[in-house]
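Researcher: Let's walk through a ligand-bound prediction step by step. First, I give you the protein sequence. Second, the SMILES string for zinc ion. Third, you return the three-dimensional complex as structure tokens. Ready?
Model: Ready.
Researcher: Here are steps one and two:
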Amino acid sequence: MEYIDNSFEAVIGLEVHTQLLTHTKMFCSCPNVFGKEPNSLVCPVCLALPGSLPVINLNAVELAVKAAIAINLNINKKSLFARKNYFYPDLPKGYQISQFQDPVSSNGYLMIDIGGGMEKKIRINRLHIEEDAGKLIHAGLNSFVDLNRAGTPLAEIVSEPDLSSPAEAAAYLKDLRDILVYLEISDGNMEEGSFRCDANISVRKKGDTNLGTRTEVKNVNSFKFVEKALEYEINRQIELILGGGKVVQETLLFNSKTGKTESMRGKEEAHDYRYFEEPDLPPLILTDGFIQKIKDSIGELPKAKRQRYINDFALSEYDAEVLTQYKDVANDFDELVKINNGTIDIKKIANWIINEWMLELKKRWATDNPEHVQERAALHEENSIPIEKIINEDLINFKMNEIIKDRKYFFDMIMQVENGKINRNGGRLVLHQLVENAKNRKVQSVEKIINDLNLAQVSDDKGIEDIIRQVLEENQKELEDLIGGKDKLFGFFVGEAMKKTKGKANPKKVNEILNKHIENYKSGI
Ligand SMILES: [Zn+2]
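Model: Step three, the predicted complex:
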């Protein structure tokens, strides 16, 4: 990273707030859903009506502990909820229930990739559980409060200031997000605020061991902006110091339109919040059995899986990344590799999953949910996010055994393509039929589908030979041009032959036989 003066270095710590994918809110039974009519998902607890009392959501605790274990934090068997007191119109209680002293987990780390095959250990101070506030919506001179989000379960993950550049900060966020999405703890959606990041930034002369005064940049709401915001702020601080000024401890907002950070308020200290133990909630006590059960459910994390795919199956980094984006997809791939048991090249299985299976399901999801897609597209208009990305961030059901009843069918379909019984397009049609069959509770083998839909390739030499002769005869002009050197026309003849067989000819055979004929013509036979 180039700064305006490279004798300085940056010291960055990140606080990530991630919403937990629970069905209900942290302390009441209101649904935890994004994008509903304002103030339609509220109850006496999240509205802070007198006499209402909070109850801890067990599922939120499970997800928080799962996240904590995945990033190597120690789980504290006894933790406490605390009140963080401040006034804001989106916070009806006048305090946020959080954890302060005695959080649910502490002292962990995440290994991040810093390029060139190098890794860096980023220490994580803690992960604690808290609730989200509501939202203010400003329109002209009016401001409105929407309390649907009030009480949404959050995990706050606080890193130590171990990150030394905007690129490292981005790598940390990406790795953290990958884990949370993979384990279905969070949908990781930065633009909608379910994965948010505040950054603490200071600069110092290289070699200095003392930390400079830090500023906090709030709510950087997209991956694209993280590096930009940090780079701007680092340069701003360096410039200030070079000009003889001093960095003031304050809270800043990143303005994505100007690309600058703007002062929001003086930075408050922890003691300003008058934290005290939440009197309405008991201490959170976790048993060894509870923690162990969650540990056992985690399994191989996406990064380790990616590396295994690259090393053991020689998959490209991109393919390994796509396959490990969703736990269900990775799981199906692993199971298919077992069924395959060395029969065909694993890359072929990977290709079918990436290019046909995932794509087909995403397309289908978008067609089945047009309103949802439109709604979200409108929401993201300002950031102009492509629709594929929006769909990517939705949790689509990828479970093969649910969608086509048994992943063995998927494998059978690939084998039929590999054996030359059907071509690729036939494979797609089989896949499509498998989905329909599962919907209609119809059981059919892949072979039966191929017969019923008449998909078997024409592979016998005689049949293809006849078709090619016919095609050549019918297109004398093109044939002369081809013999005369217009090689492009070869594809034209392949296309005509495929058309005559309604796409069922074995393309390899068509190429072979056609080539033989053309060579014969050229040599005057
Ligand atoms: Zn509620």
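Researcher: And what stands out?
Model: The CA atoms of residues 477 and 483 lie 10 Å apart. Residues 8-289 form one domain.
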